[in-house]
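Sanity check

After download, print the first record. It should look like this:
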Amino acid sequence: MKIATKTTVFEIVGTLLVALLIFLGVHFTLESRLTNGISMLPNLEHGQRVLVCKSAYWFGEPQRGDVVVFHDSSRPSPIDYIIHRIAGLPNEKVEIRNGLVYINDSMLEEPYIQGNSLNRPPEIVPHDSYLIVGDNRDSASADIVPRNEIIGKAWLCYWPLSDWHLVSGYSYD
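Expected structure tokens:
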């Protein structure tokens, strides 16, 4: 009887350790965020839930076209984060004219945008920062965001279920 009890205790402890490891793994690599507003139309709509991969940039840097979630300390809690797309990389000259992004005076090909009222004067993106802008250029803002404020890469839109899809970045290669 004692051996069976010892085995049962070891099985319970082992199961709890595995569950704890799974919980910690998910907690440190994934996060759920709610899209707020229409700045990412037509690709993400207000009220959708998105899984954010916080580990996406542990071993690499954000790339142009990635849809990211970043912390915005100027916004009141609980909406202190924004979901936008990376347009400008560190040390690039960026400008937005009539909703179109220009990188080093060349227009960026962005087939995913809508709207044309966003403008931003030319500037150099500081080292370790990114120009991040929404896809809906009639309601989005464009922000220079330090790398350490990027929470992760938007990965999966999972709610509502009828809108389930992978959040697509855009490759410029």
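If your output differs, re-run the checksum step. Summary of this record's structure: The chain has one helix and twelve strands.
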